[in-house]
Specification:
The structure is a single chain. The N and C termini lie far apart (about 80 Å). It contains ten helices and seven strands. With about 250 residues, it is α/β, with parallel strands linked by helices. Helix content is about 50%, strand content about 10%.
Length: about 250
C-alpha cells in the first residue's frame, strides 16, 4: 500500500497507513436494523465501528473528533445522503461510501460523480463491505488528509461499475423468468397428461375402492388413504378416486 504525494520510506508508510483492524468507520442510517446488520458485518472484518442514526449526530461526532475517523458509510435518505456526503467531503475531507435501496443508474451516477468513493445497493452483503478499507484515509492531524492510493477494482466508482451492476441484475431477472416459464410448462404438461389418462372403472377396481372405504371408515376415507389401502395401483390418482366417489 502506498501513500499519494511524496515518497516515504517503508517504515514511515507502515506507520502512516491504518490496517483494517485500526480503521475507524462511522455508519449512518436511521434504520436501526440495517444499522446493526452493517455494523456486525464490518466488525466481522475487524473494522472499528461507530454507529449513528442521524446526519446531525454524524456531523457532531466528526466535529468533536475530527481526526478519529477514516471512512464514513451513509444511507442515502439520511438528511439526503448526497447532502451529507458533500458536507463531509468539504468540511472534513473524508471518503464517503453511499448505500441505498435505489438502484437507478441516475442515482448511482449522482453519488459517484459527486465524489462518493463507492455506492452499495441494499441489501448490503459481506462482499460489499469486506474491502471498504481500500477507500479509507490515513490517520491525520489536520483536515488535509491524503487518501490512500490503491488500484481499484475494475469499474469501481465509475460508470462502468454502474452499467455492470445493472446488467447483472437484468440477467438475474431474466434467468428467474426463464425458470418460472419452464416450471409453468412442466405443470401444464403434467396437467394435460392427467386429463388424457382415463381410468376404466372395472367391477374389480370399484370393489377394491369399496373395500378400502370399509376398512378405513366412511368419515376418514379420503382419496389419499384409499389409494394407500389399495397399494396405489399404477395409473390411478387421487383425482381419479375423488371423481369416481362423486
Amino acid at each position: 500500500m502506498k501513500m499519494a504525494g511524496n515518497k516515504h520510506t517503508s517504515n514511515q508508510s507502515s506507520k502512516a497507513e491504518p490496517t483494517f483492524e485500526a480503521i475507524q468507520v462511522m455508519v449512518v442510517d436511521d434504520d436501526v436494523i440495517c444499522l446493526s446488520i452493517v455494523e456486525g458485518m464490518l466488525k466481522t472484518f475487524k473494522y472499528q465501528v461507530v454507529t449513528v442514526k442521524s446526519a446531525e449526530d454524524a456531523l457532531g461526532a466528526l466535529r468533536s473528533r475530527s481526526d478519529f475517523f477514516h471512512l464514513i458509510i451513509t444511507d442515502v435518505p439520511v438528511m439526503d445522503g448526497f447532502e451529507l456526503q458533500n458536507q463531509v467531503c468539504e468540511e472534513f475531507n473524508l471518503p464517503v461510501v453511499l448505500m441505498s435501496a435505489d438502484d437507478n443508474e441516475s442515482s448511482m451516477l449522482r453519488g459517484l460523480e459527486g465524489g462518493a468513493a463507492f455506492y452499495i445497493v441494499k441489501t448490503v452483503s459481506y462482499d460489499d463491505v469486506k474491502d471498504l478499507g481500500q477507500y479509507a484515509v490515513s490517520p491525520r492531524k489536520s483536515k488535509l488528509a491524503t487518501p490512500i492510493q490503491r488500484p481499484l477494482k475494475v469499474g469501481a466508482g465509475s460508470v462502468a461499475m454502474v452499467q455492470e451492476e445493472k446488467q447483472k441484475r437484468r440477467e438475474s431477472k431474466k434467468k428467474a423468468q426463464v425458470k418460472v416459464n419452464e416450471d409453468n410448462e412442466i405443470e401444464k404438461s403434467e396437467a394435460t397428461m392427467l386429463k388424457k389418462s382415463k381410468v376404466v372403472w372395472t367391477s374389480a377396481l370399484h370393489n377394491e375402492v369399496l373395500e378400502a372405504i370399509r376398512k378405513i371408515g366412511l368419515e376418514r376415507a379420503v382419496p389419499k388413504r384409499i389409494l394407500e389401502h389399495m397399494n396405489e395401483p399404477v395409473g390411478l390418482t387421487r383425482e381419479n378416486v375423488a371423481s369416481h366417489l362423486q
